[in-house]
Design a protein that fits this description.
This protein has a single domain, classed as Rossmann fold, CATH 3.40.50.1360. By secondary structure, it is α/β, with parallel strands linked by helices. Bound molecules: 2-amino-2-deoxy-6-O-phosphono-alpha-D-glucopyranose. Belongs to the glucosamine/galactosamine-6-phosphate isomerase family. NagB subfamily.
């Protein structure tokens, strides 16, 4: 796991955007794994800026989102299909239909989840997966207790996650759906490169566990310790629980320029 400590979210966004632009340079039809939530916004803002400046194109790329609420109407502004469109897809030049997500209104949920896995497989797998992390250590919507071998499936959200996400639903926890469809931890581990962004003091405990804690379903993000190419971008506020912060800083400073992340 490569740990990069950055001063603020914008710096994390720039490092991740560099990696995505480098990927698209060498593979214009790359498959991106797209996360929703606040964490990736700085990445999407930076990519949208670079796109406007003519520095990057998504015209041949494809995308898969991580997860979706169950039961929100298709036109609900907080369905992740609409969130990712608003936050990123509509701001760059993906062709229509190039970005898919699991269908939270599917009648046959198991068939939908299996089909979503198959669609990722048909696209050749995810080249670079963007991730955030929940305050309880979830990635995508893999809540504590998730099988480390899980695939795309239906999950129940914890009270904590529903409270965290209530800010998107007018502050009303009751309006946050109870169920979701989410890529599993094993699905995420198959992405060829995983880039997780964690910013803010409320993420410090989860970040400490993710990077330096034991691998455990109690903190699902810890499964990324098994990934051969995981990059974790952490801002100063989220880094306060790390024991080896000086080592991560020193290692990144000494990294050869040609290496990228
Ligand atoms: C959400 C999403 C995750 C996201 C996480 C953190 O519920 N399902 O993909 O990474 O929680 O969200 P945020 O980045 O807004 O803190």
């Amino acid at each position: 796991m490569e740990v990069i400590l950055v001063p603020d979210p914008a710096a994390a966004g720039a490092v991740a955007a560099d990696a995505i632009c480098a990927l698209l340079d060498r593979k214009p039809d790359a498959v991106l794994g797209l996360a929703t939530g606040g964490s990736p916004l700085a990445i999407y803002d930076e990519l949208a800026r670079r796109h406007r400046a003519g520095r990057v194109s998504f015209a041949a790329a494809r995308g898969f989102t991580l997860d979706e609420y169950v039961g929100l109407p298709a036109d609900h502004p907080e369905s992740y299909r609409n969130v990712i469109d608003r936050d990123f897809v509509s701001r760059v030049d993906f062709p229509p239909g190039a970005v898919q997500g699991p269908d939270g209104l599917a009648v046959d949920v198991e068939a939908e989840c299996a089909e979503y896995e198959a669609a990722i497989g048909r696209a050749g797998g995810v080249d670079l997966q963007i991730l955030g992390i929940g305050t309880d250590g979830h990635i995508a919507f893999n809540e504590p207790g998730s099988s480390l071998a899980s695939r795309t499936r239906i999950k129940s959200l914890t009270r904590q996650t529903r409270m965290d996400n209530a800010r998107f639903f007018g502050g009303d926890v009751a309006a946050v759906p109870v169920h979701c469809l989410t890529q599993g931890l094993a699905t995420i581990l198959e992405a060829r490169h995983v880039v997780l962004v964690a910013t803010g003091a409320h993420k410090a405990e989860a970040v400490g566990q993710l990077i330096e804690g034991p691998i455990s379903a109690r903190w699902p993000a810890t499964v990324l310790q098994l990934h051969p190419r995981a990059t974790v971008l952490v801002d100063d506020d989220a880094a306060t629980r790390l024991e080896l912060g000086d080592y991560y800083r020193q290692t990144y400073r000494a990294k050869p320029d040609w290496q990228g992340i």
